[in-house]
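Retro notes - structure team

What went well: the batch runner handled both jobs without manual restarts.
What didn't: labels got mixed up in the shared folder, which is why I'm recording both outputs here explicitly, each with its sequence directly above its tokens.

Job 1
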Amino acid sequence: MMNLPHLTFLRSYEAAARHLSFTTAAEELNCTQSAVSNHVRSLEEFIGRPLFVRHPRSLSLTDVGEAYLPSVRRALLEIDAATRSLISQNHKREVVVSCPISLAENWLPGVIRGFSEAHPGIELTVHSTVWADVEENVSDISITIAHEDDVDSSVMRLWDEKLTVVCAPDYMVGGVPMTDPQQLMGARLIHILGRPAYWEMVAESLGLDVLQMGGGYQTNSSSAAMEMAAAGLGCVAVPRSLIGQHVARGLLIEPYQFDRHCPWAYYANFKEKSATPSVKLFKAWLLEAAGEIAP
């Protein structure tokens, strides 16, 4: 790109041309009359043509000055508009988060509630996802669930996930309340499509070689699976991070102690380069809440 005149020279020229006065232009630009005059003279030297005719008590534009003015004015307006847009974006008080629907329904609302109480002026939008994230650049913060062998260094693991088994408090197997892992062999299992490994890991950990992997109820949503379990339809194996609200409301219980590492975990991707102060605030809040989940 060729050398361009200093922006200050162009602003002084535009203001002087609009007012046909170096003095009035100086008042608008908050500088001295001699500074504006020197800026204009430097611009004239740069382009090699006079822009003003200097009369004893007034100014008038030369033909070159008249022809040059519309382009300069348009360029300055575009620069001002672009600058205002950037400043507005930097101070925009909203955060857009994409998150798997199960986490959005069962963990994220509590995080948002606390954040909104602390920062009531910041608006939050949540895009719930099922199998894939929303389109790129839609979200400021993107949370996904992935197998630990399939992630790269660009994402941050939010916590170490555990697998658990839950059922309704009054769920029975053969007329007996659910309290023993061995009862799973006679229980109706609720399966989450795409995660058959959940029940496979449960069976392996508990030594249940004959656990029924077929039949039962099936759904593509962990939230739906937990609602089915809460309705007394059977037992479901899910990540422990999802069960908090259901357990707190007395809808689900963990009928026995079960502790198994889950290779599927939640990962966050933060757009650091374009992050506004509001996004940075929510990121810090999110990570603090994630850190409170016991490994």
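Job 2
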Amino acid sequence: MAELGILNALSILRLTPEGALLDGGATGEILLPMAQVPKGCVAGQVLNVFVAKDGEGQVVASTRQPLCQRGQVACLKVVAVNKSGAFLGWGMPKDLLLPWKEVKHEQRHRLKEGQKVLVAVVLDDQGRLAASGRLDDFLGDEAQDYREGDKVSVMVAEFTEIGVRVVVNHRHWGMVHNSDVFSELTRGEVRDGWIKALRADHKLNIALTAPGYAKIDSIAQGVLDVLKRRGGFLPLTDKSQPEAIYESLGISKKVFKQTIGSLYKSRRIAIEPEGIRLIAAP
């Protein structure tokens, strides 16, 4: 059975002047319009297509891939607003509707064109794809299927006094504490993260740097990013105060020395009397 709102691998039953009829199983035959049928396709060939309902409620297929699928969280731009809600650009011809009833109360009167909003992609009561801003309805605070050190995907969601609340693997809430943030983050940004600790209450503490040897490589990239944003120079040396290093990079002096040594050996930076300078790529 073809599933709505996600990519499906469906085989071609036959080709018609209107397009390719795909085997949707219990869903029935699904039309892929001729304009989207890859050249040279034959009956029996399997295509990866996105399946959804069109404006008339018919199930159709598309070879276009949206920015997000059902069950995922995404940061999407508002392209229009009317009495029905906000319409979000998501890489498909028909924009995704965020109905007013699915918008967090504090956001309802502030949404406007050009603004970005964090939403979950869901099916509405009629089986059509829509967006919801009620993330707590779809994301859990507790998770038991992770191990310490597991690599995960995180999306920056909210900034709090103790750190950054993130969406983990589109399924759970997690927290990156301020002590683990060493570079600028933006809402909606997607990054690699690692499970830092397994808490007794099953809530997730997330680190943005990899454990072990990979940690230095991850921190090194963060230092390079900061250098780029600061015009290629940072007034930090091995004689700088730990507080100054932490304020600029969010890392300890010991880790700073290890990271700078690695970057210097790989000829990514130059060490000068007054600080470190980014070396332009050849």
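One thing worth noting from job 2: Residues 7-62 form a domain with the OB fold (Dihydrolipoamide Acetyltransferase, E2P) fold (CATH 2.40.50.140).
We'll revisit the folder naming next retro.
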